[in-house]
Amino acid sequence: MSLKRLSEPEAPAARRILDAAELLFSRQGVVATSVRQITREAEVNVASVNYYFGSKDDLAEAVFERVIARVTEERLTGLGHILSAAAAAGEAPDLARIVSSFVEPYMGDGNEDQGVLMARFILSHRLEPSDTTRRIVGEYLNPMARAYVDAFAKAVPGAETGDLFWRYLLMVSTTILTSTEDRAADRLSALSEGRASVADRGVARDALVAFAVAGIRNSAPVAFVPGTLDQPD
Question: Where is the DNA-binding region (predicted)?
Answer without folding.
Answer: 34-53
